Amino acid sequence: AGGRQPAPDLAGRRVVVSAGGTREPVDPVRFLGNRSSGRQGVALAEAAAARGAQVTLVAANLETALTAPLVEAGVRVVDVGSTAELRTAVREAATAADVVVMAAAVADFRPSRTPGAKIKKTQGEPPPVIELVENPDVLAELARDRLSPGQVVVGFAAETGDAAGSVLEHGRAKARRKGADLLAVNAVGDGRGFGAVDNEVTVLDAAGDVVAEVAGSKRQVADGLWDAVTKHLSVM
Ligand code: CTP
Ligand code: CA
C-alpha cells in the first residue's frame, strides 16, 4: 500500500534474484556466515513482481517470515544454504531468465574440509585450524557464460572507502573485473547498508561509468535499479 503504482514494464520478463547470505558448513553443527539481512534482495523480488515479472528468488538462509509475503505475491522461492547450493539454483533458474540480479552476500571462502562429526575440544591439544578455499564467483561466471541470450546480469557491491581508494573507485574496479552489465554499489559503514533501513546506491555499467544514482528505502532503490535494468533489456 502507498507509493507509486509501477508500470508493468517487466511483464513477460523472467527474472532471478538471489538474496541473503550463504553459510559454509564447518562441521554438522557450525557454519561460517555473514550478516546480510536479505532485505534488499527481497525488495528487488517484490518490486519486480509488482512490475509484472515472473520472479524466482534464490533465498540464502532467509527467514520464512521474510519470504512468505513474496510467495503470496506469486514469487517462486528456492531456499539454499551454502554457496554451492546457491550457485546451482541460480544457474538453473538463469538458463531461462532475462535478468539475473546477484543481491546475495556470497561467502568468498569455505572450509576446505567438512568433517562428518562435530569438532571436539581435546584437553591439552591446540585449537583446530580451519583451512579455507576460495568459492567460485557466481556473478563473474554468469557474466562470462551468458546462460540465456541477451540476458542482463546485475551485481551488488557493498564497499567502504579505504587507503587504497574511495567507495566509487573500488566499485569501478569491481564493475570492470566482474563483467556484469550493471553493478549497484552501496556505501556501507556508519550505519548504512547492512541491516539499515535506508540505502544509497550508485549504478555502474560494465565500463565502470555511472548510469544512475538511487537513494531511499530498499524498495525505492529496488525500483531505481529495475528502471536501469529495463534500459538494458532488448526489445522482445
Ligand atoms: N559474488 C558472487 N560470488 C562470489 C562472491 C561474490 O556471485 N563468490 C557476487 C555478489 O553476489 C555480488 C558481487 O559478486 O553481486 C560483488 O560481491 P563482493 O563481495 O562485493 O565482491 P568480491 O568479488 O567478492 O570482492 P571483495 O573482495 O570486495 O569481497
Ligand atoms: Ca566478497
From TrEMBL:
The keyword Lyase applies. CTP binds at D108, K118, P136, D137, V138, L139, F156, K174, K178. One of its GO terms (molecular function) is ligase activity. Its cofactor is Mg(2+); FMN. Keywords: Decarboxylase, Flavoprotein, FMN, Ligase, Lyase, Magnesium, Metal-binding, Multifunctional enzyme. Residues 15-236 are annotated as: Phosphopantothenate--cysteine ligase. Binds 1 FMN per subunit. The keyword Magnesium applies. Residues 10-231 form the DNA/pantothenate metabolism flavoprotein C-terminal domain. Pathway: Cofactor biosynthesis; coenzyme A biosynthesis; CoA from (R)-pantothenate: step 2/5; Cofactor biosynthesis; coenzyme A biosynthesis; CoA from (R)-pantothenate: step 3/5. Its EC number is 4.1.1.36, 6.3.2.5. In the C-terminal section; belongs to the PPC synthetase family. Catalyzes two sequential steps in the biosynthesis of coenzyme A. In the first step cysteine is conjugated to 4'-phosphopantothenate to form 4-phosphopantothenoylcysteine. In the second step the latter compound is decarboxylated to form 4'-phosphopantotheine. This is Coenzyme A biosynthesis bifunctional protein CoaBC. It comes from Isoptericola chiayiensis. The lineage of its organism: Bacteria, Bacillati, Actinomycetota, Actinomycetes, Micrococcales. The gene is coaBC. The chain holds residues 192 to 427 of 427 of the full protein.
